[in-house]
User: What shape does this take?
Amino acid sequence: MTARLLGIELLDELRTIVREPTALFFSIVMPVGFFALFVSMFGGYNSGDLTAGTRMIGTFGTFGVLAVTLMNPGISVAQDREIGWLRVKRVQAVPLPVTLVAKVIATLPYAMGVLLAMTATAAVTGNLQTSALDVLRLYGVLLLGAVPFALLGLAVGCQARPNATTAVLNAILMPAAVVSGLWMPLEILPDFFGSIAPFLPTYHLGELAVAQLDGGQVAGHVAALAGWTVVMAAVAGLSYRRARL
Assistant: This one.
């Protein structure tokens, strides 16, 4: 029964995302556009054992996935709260947590679309130098690693109004992406960025993604993301219990 309800809710959420072209633009087209610009300019340079273009699939791919999975569920929850839709859901047969889970899962096809578009762009520009297995492993890591960020989005959406949720989540994502080296390598950024980055989950997800391409170490990054997942799950749970639906 729960699986059937989840399927219905998921289909509804997918339709809702498609009906929001502005959200699709900022969460999908914009990250892919940034990637196309940077990879066309710097993709041919070597970055360790990888070309910069191949490495960018990991770093910009992280940003692209987070632009979808951090922003969309939180904004959707905030909008549903404002119009009273979540109050309606509470008195229906569908458990509200099923609706929230569907909001997160519905973002995954679009996140995959971002990754596929970036991979295709790197291939067309001649900057894709890795195996298909490595790329598939990268996709899996990014989609799974987006869980704590989706929880953060839900936590903000349960407390703030739609415009405030958009502003807060953008204020989190954009600086974190820069400081974590998702747009430009930390080596060319001010030194204090490199001192801050290890404390950010965006850094660990980006490094874990790149490790799927260059065979780097993963244990520390996995442990850090697991810790952040626990923290974000607690924050999201508390925010949900205190939400005014």
In short: Residues 86 and 92 are 10 Å apart (CA to CA). The chain has a mean pLDDT of 86. The beta strands are 46-47, 50-51. The chain is about 75% helix and 0% strand.
